[in-house]
Amino acid sequence: MDLSQLVQNTVCGGLAAAGFGVLFNVGFRGLTWCAASGALALALRTIALDGGWSMEAASFVAALAVGVAVQLVPSRFPVSRTALHVVGCVPMIPGAFAAKAILGLFAISAQHPVTNETFIASMDNALRVTLIVGALGAGVAIPSLLRVQNDSR
Amino acid sequence: MPKPAMIRRCESLDAIAILALEFGRLLMEAGSSARHVEEITTQVAIGLGAEHVHLQVNYTSLAVTICAGPDAVTRMRRVGPMGVNETLHRALSDAATRILQGGLTLTEARAELTHLRQNSPSHSGWYVAVSVGVACAAFGRLLGADSAGVAPILFASALGQMVRRQLAQHHINVFVSATAVAFLGSALCGLGARWAGSQTLATDIIAPMLLLVPGVPAFNAEYDILEGHPTIGGSRAIWVIVMVVFMTVGVWLAQGLLGVRP
User: In what order do the strands lie in the sheet containing B71-78?
Assistant: First the structure.
């Protein structure tokens, strides 16, 4: 395990989550918790990736951990559970993959004939975006759905 | 759940429906999921004396039917552009809890809502811009940008956020704004990173556009579908896809200007 990589990703995850917390108008008292949520997510994803897991599986586990941790937060907390979910997982949203997938499609439309390399790279990015977003959403939603079901009983 | 006082029965169902819908509208515009909108709107209506509440959540409108005894009323409300405002979301949730617990009359609830709408605190533009810059710089490092690329990403993202805020204040279409901000951020970042000697230019110019990634709508879309609201979830998902396409066009234009290969 590359410890410096783990520390860097954890810090960057915390900074990105806190920054988006400000953008989402989270109060000052809640920003530390936003940073903690992002740091937890990125630390777990880095450890999972280092363990040889795929990006999709690592993202799912990290999102699930954030989802479970957020459910343990009391309802009277400086920031809502939903906001903690989202800012924790925002640093894992594959925005760059999405952009690369669409840029790849633009490149394909400009190529005559189309090369397999460009096409496959674009499709690979598009597929990764779909699977990672699905993994993140499912990871944070499962604990929340279980709690709602439990509360309604 | 505590029973509201019987005296509230005499409150006008119509006024209750209008107030409940106003709570719902503000929640939608603050970035709440359909389930939260439904829960909180129902709390408000029940707390003010309704016996049954049926809410329909659509992308651009809300419709509610509330019943008390033999009487029922249906009202509809248009919803404005969706944003994200966690502070307002929490304040509305807290107010709805107080209403449900019988702490506020209809008049007091209306005054509370007006107060929240007019006095909800928000961070200053400069603070948000710098925070977004730091967040995008952190994103850049996570994507593999080298250290020479970090400062250009930070400054370009902060400037992009300030321009985005100005465009929003002038009611520029959100998709056109996304393309303009992505182009500006990517082009400035590309120029700065090239001057700073960054070796990861292709990654650097993508990072400033990440401030535009619609994370909350993307998660809400998935939540809504999973929680039994596929119509609004599907609408949100399409909005997210179109937004990503428009912001990518901005990056594509910047790539063309700078001659950067993806």
Answer: B52-57, B61-68, B71-78
Task: Tell me the mean pLDDT in the region B36-60.
Answer: 93
The tens digit of pLDDT for each residue in A70-121 reads 988 887 777 888 888 889 998 898 877 888 888 888 888 777 777 778 888 8
Query: Is the minimum CB–CB distance between B86 and chain A shorter than 8 Å?
Result: yes
| Contact residues on chain A for B33, CB-CB shorter than 8 A | 82
**What is the residue-averaged pLDDT of chain B?**
90
Mutation to test the A interface, candidates B100, B101, B119, B123, most A Cβ within 10 Å: B123
Question: C-alpha distances in angstroms, B248 versus B65, B192, B207, B211?
Answer: 42, 20, 11, 12
Task: Give the ranges where A24-115 is alpha helix by DSSP (H).
Answer: 28-50, 55-71, 81-89, 95-110
Query: Is ipTM > 0.90 here?
Result: no
- How far is Cα A55 from Cα A50, in angstroms, rounded to an integer? 10
Structure tokens, B171: 């009611």
pTM of the entire predicted model = 0.87
